[in-house]
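Homework-ish question, so no full write-ups if that breaks the rules, but can someone show me the predicted structure for this set?
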Amino acid sequence: MSFTVSGVNCAAATPLNADLTPDLGLFVAHCRHLLDLGCHGIALLGTTGEANSFSVAERRQILEAALRAGIAPDRLLPGTGVNAAPETVELTRHALANGVTRVVMLPPSYYKGVSDEGLFAAYARIIESIGDERLKIVLYHIPQVSGVPLSHALIARLIEAFPTTVVGIKDSAGDLSNMQAIAAAHPGFAVLAGADPLMLPLLKSGGAGCITATSNLVGDSLRVIYDHLGDEAVVEPAQARINAWRSLSNSYVQIPTIKAMIGLQSGSTGWSRARPPLLPLGDAQLSDLREKFALLP
Amino acid sequence: MSFTVSGVNCAAATPLNADLTPDLGLFVAHCRHLLDLGCHGIALLGTTGEANSFSVAERRQILEAALRAGIAPDRLLPGTGVNAAPETVELTRHALANGVTRVVMLPPSYYKGVSDEGLFAAYARIIESIGDERLKIVLYHIPQVSGVPLSHALIARLIEAFPTTVVGIKDSAGDLSNMQAIAAAHPGFAVLAGADPLMLPLLKSGGAGCITATSNLVGDSLRVIYDHLGDEAVVEPAQARINAWRSLSNSYVQIPTIKAMIGLQSGSTGWSRARPPLLPLGDAQLSDLREKFALLP
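A: Not a homework solution, just the prediction itself:
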């Protein structure tokens, strides 16, 4: 099966300076490290990347920093979906203008309980406003955060209306059967698991790969699984390692914990911050984390 | 009791042009009409105003249009809270630079289940970044839409830290006892009901007034209630009228229905549109609405 987006993609975290602006230098170093680890792509500016806490201007700066550092545009999958359609259009056009043709797009998510018809109209107007044949969109289903689920009927309608543009979905709801059903219904449409333990079973049933937070830490092990599907002797210890890291990252609020773990792994202090409403770990949490981190496989 | 914000404030709806950009001329005419009806203030760019569907640039244009039309800055309470703190700061500074000192501020609402500590940090950083003694903030509690409730402990902490800035709250959760408890705990802090039937009982127990959607249609009756508290012979029929209009506005998805009703009331066609994910009413709905509208008191 050939997909427009596939493999191990990292929902890259965003390090911050002391004034809580993005630390672009450290971010770019992290992106390079992720590619060195074996990640196929970097899904920057997602939920883990705190994208919704950054202004349109900051989001542009972050993407431009990665490109300026020489990271190839086809390795980047920026999140460009915000509540206001004109800004989603602006961010997506900005990516395209910089040669980045693949984006991950949240639906507008302020209003809850909106109709499929309304969500279809939102996506359709955005795609038509952008009007660029190169554009490839990965839809983003993360109802536990966005509050706005993407139904199978909506997904089918979007694929039918924009078959060369709507090429995949990141499913972060954690329900493997939902991902499998989407993959089964739409061969060639890239279903990407949002949770690390689900990439393996999803790949076995027609999925395309993953976009996950833990790949900030163990992208190499995810890559091992992707490359050695079916070789249980190789896959099992890799999955066990991923699960151990993921479990620790869920000890506290996930995003600051992942950032703290990247800090412990890399030795850089710029990972110790988060932009409110997220907060960095407290001292007791950090000390507990440090202890358990030392024991990770 | 003296409040910094009080009375009948209208959560003004935003009419749209055929291309779904804001129809500034019609919006300004509506604002004038609302003041003529007797509204004390216009809470533009709130949930009813579809503010989250507009870009920062569009939000600035909408506020500027109202000011350019000669509406006094002290009659305007724009919503300025968005997910990205730098944009909340920008929108609030823009209001202040135009002499508008009172704003309604949503918390950042993409991440759910965040701590009071994190929400306090978010508001505190915004207030400190703005650094303007003139600023008066009405907090915005609308958990059924934003997904982010504001707890009593958070409200108390914000009032304590910023007593001259954090002056009130719009409570749209529909639970009168919650509003009464906040009013009782913080005399002088303006609790504003987000639902029309609750202004009356709230005013009787220390509340300051309302910010509601139905006041787009029957602001005059709300003003009657506000001015004649205790005079049941006047208040009761006014409340009955409000309730009838409100009930009809809830027949279909509320925001487009209110817009359609403003259109029926004013005869202007620019109210027949909504920005996705909201959609205008369908023909059958409109025809049903028209019939019932004709029977309203």
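Now go work out the reasoning yourself. Hint: The interface with chain B takes residues 20, 47, 52-58, 82-87, 90, 107-112, 114-115, 117-119, 121-122, 125, 144-148, 253, 275-279 of chain A (CB under 8 Å).
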